[in-house]
Peptidase S1 domain-containing protein (Clastoptera arizonana), 231 residues
Amino acid sequence: AESLDLGFRDDFGYKIVGGKQVEIEEFPYQVAIEGGSVLFICGGSIISPNWVLTAAHCVYKENISWLRVRAGSSKFRKEGRLHKVKTIIWHYLYEPSFNDYDVGLILVKQKFQNLPNIRPIPLSTVPAVPGDSVTAAGWGYLEEQRRHRPSKLMAVNLTVVDWSLCRQQYEFLTPRQMCVMGIKKDTCYGDSGGAIVSNGKQVGIVSTGFRCAGHGLPGIYVNITVVGPWI
């Protein structure tokens, strides 16, 4: 495993492969984290009136003065409501090398309005188990080569993989991480920080993995139930 180019999803996120277009009203907690007027950085999820949950690598050492959070829009970098950022926090044990403890928080200056297209998602206190169906959403690239982004929000259904089996593929896997995959379906570059959801509750955060769908390897996600006490 040490000789593999792991293709980490740490260069501002990952994508949705093999998914479908959806409306923000179906995923009202989904937000886009943007840099200034030119850069899409990551996804995130609204978890309270003024807090967004995302991956640590999305906000690690970022300058908050240029960060914006776009809520309430299905469209890529258009419409919705832009929120300035007051504070960013990443887990004090975050390890950039392998994205361990890859969890971060954003405090916005103006509270999110509670609307049909802007609404927080509860965090699960019960861990997802192998075989559970989960859903991810985002505006990431549509293929590994990073040629095309979607014009609208995309979503994909995936399946939780047994942790022990996943560790046979990723020897660096930690208890803070969980694995999810699909057949020719995946999150990819641009989706980092977004939520994976089961039964209406967030169970994980898009974090890292080996390239994208089609390689027969699962993606790696932050396990919400393990890092929940810090959140």
The mean pLDDT is 83. The radius of gyration is 16 Å. Helices lie at 56-59, 163-169, 224-227. The CA atoms of residues 110 and 117 lie 17 Å apart.
